[in-house]
Amino acid sequence: MKSYANIAGSRGSRPCEIATPQKPSLRAKRIFVAEDEMLVALDIETAFGAAGAILLGPVGHLDEGLRSLEGLEEIDAAVLDVDLHGDEVFPLAKILAERHVPFLFHTGRSDLSAITQLFPGVKICAKPGKVEDLVTEVGRLVH
Fold this sequence. Notes:
By secondary structure, the protein is an alpha/beta fold. The protein has six helices and seven strands; from the N terminus they run H-E-H-E-H-E-E-E-H-E-H-E-H.
């Protein structure tokens, strides 16, 4: 399997752990979101909007995400739910990695081995969790 660590990686795959709450500015940052759970998507929209981000999505299906990425040139970062209605999000992650767009995974999976094997070094944020932690982590990705 091909690894995208050098393209998309950060410091290692681990759950998001925020020691000090911060309110990062994502003002005018274009954030691509793939999330199939409506309530989670709404929380993400609210939190990222409050941080000043321009949300691209959320998309809830893999094919919708693939079509969306075809038309998007400028993306500053992405948040990817690993499972989109039964389809793994890895094709989207691969495209983002090849474009050198930083991203993180947002998942409720307990077995992270497939993710860490394909994308070592990419941050994994656990669901359920605080959406503010996602905002903080994305802020770190873009700054």
